[in-house]
Amino acid sequence: MYHIEPGDALIVVDPQNDFLPGGSLAVPEGNRIFEPINRLMPFFSYVVATRDWHPRDHAYFQANGGPWPWHCLAGTQGAQFSPLLHAEQIDDVVSKGTDPKTDGYSGFAATDLAEKLRMHGIRRVFVAGLATDYCVKATTLDARSAGFDAIVLTDAIAAIDAAPGDAERALDEMRASGAQFTRSADLAL
Ligand code: VGL
Ligand code: ZN
Predict the structure, then answer these.
(1) How many domains does the chain have?
(2) What is the pLDDT of residues 113-134, one digit of tens each?
(3) Whole-angstrom distance, CA of residue 96 vs CA of residue 111
(4) Nearest-CA neighbor of 128 among 28, 42, 14, 25?
(5) What average pLDDT score do residues 148-156 get?
(6) pTM of the predicted model, to two decimals?
(7) Active site residue 52
(8) SS3 at position 169
């Protein structure tokens, strides 16, 4: 059982239309994240959402020789936060993936996320959002590297799972970094 305390932040990773059913890079179970996220946000003193925010010439698009279909082009409808998210509960938004040459999976990569967290006195982050095997994993690993305690909300994440086992391997990597895991129902509010 974890207690939410001052010094805790909730990071909501990429809750964007393109990653949800009907979107161009849909995570099959993506909509499962919204019930726990919306329920928990009011209990955190600081809630930050990341958004994948790519230029058209991003090297990771298939059209440019990379692995991914078009998704989260900066400023498009697909890059908007899902209407299922209670966006009025978000204190800050961090755009990532804006550099055309790097994957931009992590909310900490070439952003001011670590500074924002420190400015708000955050020592521990709870991580939710999409996708478990890419941006949730990368954000959690970088949170650990930046010196934050990290707790992943297992019912508030969902995986692309392009290769079977990707989600499990992602959880193993996060665990090996020192991240912990809990279900949102096991948080003391
Ligand atoms: C993501 C693949 C490409 C993610 C972003 O948000 O997990 N995955 N860009
Ligand atoms: Zn992307």
Answers:
(1) 1
(2) 999 999 999 999 999 999 999 9
(3) 7
(4) 14
(5) 98
(6) 0.98
(7) no
(8) helix
Amino acid of residue 53: W
Evaluate whether 15 touches 79 at the Cβ level (below 8 Å).
no
What token pair was written down for 77? 């409808």
The CA 4 to ligand 2 mean position distance, Å, reads 30
Q: Which ligand is nearest to the CA of 97?
A: 2
CA–centroid distance, residue 134 to ligand 1 (Å): 6
Percentage with pLDDT > 70 across the chain: 100
Confidence band, pLDDT 50/70/90 cuts, at residue 189: confident
Query: How far are the Cα atoms of 61, 64, 74 from residue 157, in angstroms, in the given order?
Result: 23, 29, 23
Residue 147: what residue type? G
Full residue range of the structural domain in which residue 46 is found:
2-188
With a 6 A CB cut-off, is 134 part of the ligand 1 pocket? yes
CATH no. for residue 98? 3.40.50.850
State in Å: Cα 2 to ligand 2 middle: 31
The mean pLDDT value for 142-148 works out to 98
Which entry of 8, 135, 137, 142 is annotated as an active-site residue? 135
Here the tokens at position 26 are: 């849909």
| Residue ID of nearest Cα to ligand 1 atom 6 | 135
